[in-house]
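Field log, afternoon session.

UNIT: design team B
ACTIVITY: writing a sequence onto a fixed backbone
BACKBONE:
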């Protein structure tokens, strides 16, 4: 197998698996992957997933990677909070929601964390197109509800002060009717109570 032919086939995908390779070349010799890694032509990300060293440069690339290496999943929690400018701090992990098992991987290109929910709670995300890529990102409303869902300690106004939430940006982006519909779907009195506390803190009442 010629490496240039291999690169031409998979380079535009950003990230690819041995399953992708098998579909293209059923008789592929996987020793090639080891040799190309040794030469610095390929990066092994985890288990069966690979990328070329020059392809994963932007946040959008990493969001796409997060979606692909653990399916189904969408970006949420602190990563989405920063994406929407709801918090000022940089977030160094890519944090996702999945219906699969929770997982955490430190790779050569970043740290990926997956929090697990029941299938009925796996909603409230949209495909985002950016830099010719498409990745799944929680919408602003589900981002806040995911934050409350996974942080049951957030129950009163003082609990939110340490988050340094950007009230102005949240107020600008948030669709309260949509968030209310999400709460009705989730049907959790405890989550509703936490939302009321956050709503009061954000002065949305």
């Amino acid at each position: 197998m010629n490496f240039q032919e291999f690169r031409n086939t998979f380079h535009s995908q950003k990230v690819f698996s041995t399953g992708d390779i098998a579909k293209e070349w059923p008789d592929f010799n996987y020793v090639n992957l080891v040799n190309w890694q040794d030469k610095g032509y390929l990066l092994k990300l985890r288990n069966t997933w690979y990328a070329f060293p020059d392809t994963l440069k932007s946040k959008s690339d990493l969001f796409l990677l997060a979606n692909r290496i653990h399916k189904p999943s969408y970006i949420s929690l602190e990563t989405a909070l920063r994406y929407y400018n709801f918090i000022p701090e940089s977030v160094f992990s890519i944090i996702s929601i999945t219906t699969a098992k929770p997982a955490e991987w430190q790779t050569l290109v970043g740290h990926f964390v997956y929090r697990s929910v029941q299938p009925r709670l796996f909603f409230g995300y949209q495909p985002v197109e950016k830099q010719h890529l498409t990745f799944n990102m929680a919408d602003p409303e589900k981002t806040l509800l995911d934050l409350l869902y996974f942080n049951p300690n957030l129950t009163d106004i003082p609990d939110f002060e340490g988050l340094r939430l950007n009230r102005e940006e949240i107020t600008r982006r948030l669709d309260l009717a949509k968030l209310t519909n999400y709460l009705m779907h989730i049907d959790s009195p405890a989550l509703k109570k936490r939302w009321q506390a956050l709503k009061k803190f954000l002065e949305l009442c």
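LOG NOTE: The chain is about 45% helix and 20% strand.
NEXT ACTIVITY: expression trials, pending approval
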